[in-house]
Write a structure and sequence with these properties.
By secondary structure, the protein is α+β, with helices and mostly antiparallel strands. The chain is 40% helix and 15% strand. Strands 1, 2, 3, 4 and 5 form a 5-stranded antiparallel sheet that branches. Bound molecules: flavin mononucleotide.
């Protein structure tokens, strides 16, 4: 399927079907100038993004949108000088929260109030939070896993709205953290360029193939 570069819809409607969106999303390295992303579009993007799943529904993600051109100029050297920082319409820092448990009372109360769990289970879960995420390593995994799921939702929603994205790991995490004023409890898991594709991407690189990535019943076992 050809890479689809739709015209961004300022009304933020998504008309692409899911398979088409997954098959045609690309990491965009060539942006063109275009209109600023409207507040309606941002709202729709983040409304859809926050429907991503997360452990205990803790939602361990936050986002910092940098669309001011001057701020992006300053961000540019912190992102290994990647030109997309300057050429896209905005950069979004995708943060993973190492301590989303600060909301545990509120989150577990919702589970209780919405009829998922009774009071004793709620109390047991409140204790379990520290058991499930006992140390820094597990908290980092949780933060990165949650933030990455949200980032994927964001990319597909943006693509469906006719916007192009580039997820980026090529940046100085400490430099970006300081520049954006991110507290220590959060990781900058990814920088995401968002904007208008110039439709100049090279063909997509091949994937490993399902025989290589899927194991049946145990690691290394193929289905014949
Ligand atoms: C976590 C992550 C980090 C990435 N970092 C960069 C980056 O710093 N610079 C870049 O040009 N591409 C980056 N990419 C894009 C990948 O090269 C791209 O996703 C991959 O080649 C597959 O291409 P596709 O997304 O068009 O299917 C990153 C992708 C991911 C998921």
């Amino acid at each position: 399927m050809k890479s689809a570069v739709a015209t961004p819809r300022q009304d933020a409607r998504i008309v692409m079907n899911l398979e088409e969106a997954i098959r045609t999303r690309r990491s965009t390295h060539y942006f063109r100038p275009g209109p600023a992303i409207s507040q309606v579009q941002w709202n729709k993007l983040f409304e859809l993004t926050e429907l991503s799943p997360s452990s205990f529904n803790f939602q361990p993600w936050d986002f910092i949108v940098v669309d001011d051109p001057e701020r992006r100029k300053q961000l540019h050297p912190l992102c290994w000088g990647q030109k997309q920082v300057l050429e896209s319409a905005a950069m979004v820092a995708v943060l993973g929260d190492k301590n989303p448990h600060r909301r545990d009372q509120q989150v577990l109360q919702q589970f209780h109030d919405n009829g998922y769990i009774d009071e004793s289970t709620r109390n047991a879960y409140l204790q379990a939070v520290d058991v499930v995420y006992p140390e820094e390593g597990r908290r980092i995994e949780h933060a990165v896993g949650g933030a990455c799921l949200a980032a994927m939702t964001f990319m597909l929603a943006a693509h469906g709205m006719g916007l192009a994205t580039l997820p980026m790991i090529g940046f100085d995490p400490e430099g970006v953290r300081r520049f954006l004023g991110v507290p220590d409890e959060y990781l900058v898991t990814m920088m995401m360029a968002v904007g208008h594709s110039a439709n100049q991407e090279l063909p997509r690189q091949q994937r490993r193939g399902i025989d290589d990535i899927v194991h049946w019943d145990r690691f290394g076992q193929q289905r014949t």
